[in-house]
Structure formats: C-alpha cells, structure tokens
Amino acid sequence: MNKLKNYLVPILFALLAVNLAFAQTGNFIVCNGPNCTLCDLLVLAKNVISFITQLTLVLAGAFFAWGAIVMMTARESEQQVASGKKIMTISVLGCALSLGAWVIVATLLQILTGSASKLPWDQIQCTF
C-alpha cells in the first residue's frame, strides 16, 4: 500500500498543475485599471468559483480512482474494501456538493446582475 501512495501523490500534483496551467490562461480579471465596475467584480467572482469547481472535480476524480485502486488491491481484507467504498462514496458526495453549490451561486449571480436566462445560463451580462 505504501508503494501505491508513492505513485498517487505525484499523479495528484500533476493533475493540479495541469488545472492551474489552465487557470492562468483563463482571464479571471475582465477589466483594466480604474475602469472596473461592480459587474466586473461579479464576473471575477463567477470565474473564481468556476475554477474552484473544476479543481474539485479533478480532485474528486482522482480520489474516486484511488478508492477503486484500494478496493482492487484489498485481496481478502474486508476492512480495506470498506475503506475503498468509503473513499469513493465521499468523492461522489463531494462532487455532487460542489456542483450543487456552483449551480446555486451561478444562478444567484445571474439574478443579481439581471442577466437574461439564455444558454449558457452561467454567463453574466450586466444590465444595470
């Protein structure tokens, strides 16, 4: 099991590095200098929340895979099978919680900015 942990940590860091690289190309800040408005602040909030949601999905996928590997390497240990199931269950619940929070916050931001309810619904277009 220790060998598995030695391989899993670099894989997790590689996944995080890839996601952080995407974040740097993703234009979080949409305004320049003193021209920023309240709408720009809300768009920044949406961009940060979307990035955090993507990061949690990557981590949830990695932990789900880790739980599956723990179960596959359990042999006849019921305790290790239960541990793998627990890891996978927590991963799925965390993913659902993250997506639910993202939907709620994106909808609230759309309502606060008065954006039209068109697809894609998480895009903010200030009308005030």
Overview of this protein structure:
- The protein has 3 helices and no strands.
- With 128 residues, the protein is mainly alpha-helical.
- It is elongated, with a radius of gyration of 19 Å.
- It starts with a helix and ends in a 15-residue tail after the last helix.
| Biggest sheet architecture | none
Pairing-aware structural class of the strands and helices?
Answer: mainly alpha
Envelope shape? elongated
Total number of helices: 3
Query: What proportion strand?
Result: under 5%
| Average predicted confidence as pLDDT | 79
Unreliable residue stretches: none
* Oligomer description: single chain
The end-to-end distance, rounded to whole angstroms, is 57 Å
Q: Can you count the beta strands?
A: 0
What radius of gyration results from the CA coordinates? 19 Å
Order of helices and strands: HHH
Helicity range of the residues?
A: over 70%
Count of all domains: 1
Layout of helices and strands, plus pairs?
Layout: H1 2-24, H2 38-72, H3 78-113
Helix pairs in contact: 1-2, 2-3
